[in-house]
Prior knowledge:
7 helices; three-stranded antiparallel beta sheet; single chain; 3 strands; alpha+beta
Amino acid sequence: xxxxxxxxxxxxxxxxxxxxxxxxxxxxxxxxxxxxxxxxxxxxxxxxxxxxxxxxxxxxxxxxxxxxxxxxxxxxxxxxxxxxxxxxxxxxxxxxxxxxxxxxxxxxxxxxxxxxxxxxxxxxxxxxxxxxxxxxxxxxxxxxxxxxxxxxxxxxxxxxxxxxxxxxxxxxxxxxxxxxxxxxxxxxxxxxxxxxxxxxxxxx
Length: 204
């Protein structure tokens, strides 16, 4: 089915098309719950991604790269670029049943920064905060490999920034980002934890 999300409505339509059985939205929800399915935020994945090629790279090509880096005393850097805005809200917040949690947002003073960074399996982190858009000139200024596990560092930064008191100026946003990145840079174990996902095979 051409559905971006497997909602109860999409499942209901699929059952009707495949088995000629009409169910209500509520009944579909009850069945899904009984089968152990719960609504979750989906993971974004590019249509162009080829899982078999990714698996081959993880199982065969990366171990060879790692072996060569160790033999030459080199480091493998995982790099990524991200945008940071002072109006970003992440994570979850508790509230009484039936009431939506409220977070204080900044109005009329949206500020944006960019950041490029790398992390290594040994827990090292390096970064550069950019005032403005990321482009090829900034990439040349701060070289970084293509995106990968460094996305975890970006998520770490954005989560911490979004849980603090909203900042109203770009200078304060820059200072908050710089302070947390300096903290990450000096805590190797925190960076190493990015590599501990059971789905990842990049040993420290």
